[in-house]
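re: ur question from yesterday

yeah so i grabbed the chain u mentioned. its 263 aa long if i counted rite. heres the sequnce exactly as i have it in my notes:
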Amino acid sequence: MTLDNAFEIVGLVTESAVILVLARRRAWRRLPVFFVYCIWALCSDAAAYTIQVVSAHGLGLNVYLVDSALDFALQLCVLVELAWSVLRPLRNWLSLRALWAIGFLFLVAGAAVWPFARLSSIAVSSPAWQVMAQLQQTETIVRVLFFLLLAVCSHLLSLGWRDRELQVATGFGFYSLASLAVAALNTRQATALQFTHLYRIVAASFLCSLFYWVFSFAHEEVERHEFTPRMRTALMTLAETAHITRAALAGLAPAKPGELDGC
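ran it thru and got these structure tokens back, copy pasting raw so excuse formatting
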């Protein structure tokens, strides 16, 4: 058994453990998209490993591109879900429009990052592979930015390391930081073999994130603290400003102060 095969098998076992502990904690109630993503990741990795074992050609380009696109879409939805869950103390003052607004902000962030997400130096002739690599780097950078934002603002958002939102974001953040570091190192690599050796660091970091999720969700979640009065006032003011601005742009009468139906 090669080292790469060992990584894949251990990864499949650990992904199964993550799903089991999430099911035990009934995580689908709080974080249904994250739960679905974990199931998708296990099925996708298991299918890829089976194809590699059975077929000498491995995954085809079209299959790999579709898999990468679906993975990107699911991870984007997970980030939106985490951001929406972070705002749970304000749910009584927010409508579903706020959820759509959060999704739009992530799309804007991805569009802003896209031109800079070209860290791979391995020369590839296929434009489709180049797009796929850039899509993965964009996804990675957005995950890192979201994790850093949560970590920096954790005190203001009344988040601790035992809150599920920060635990999930930390797992993604650690894995994503390792991916970015490897991508930066790859700019100095000349061959695909050197790239393969460095990619094992990414595989190891992903395993560490899986182990961290198993450990985190194996423990009871602490009760979520309410936002501080200062933070609540700031978020409410921001939401009201966004509502009034949207109404003005739409040619409608601005809402009275205190009226809030989401942003």
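noticed a couple things. DSSP finds eight helices and no strands in the chain. also Residues 49 and 247 are 52 Å apart (CA to CA).
anyway ttyl
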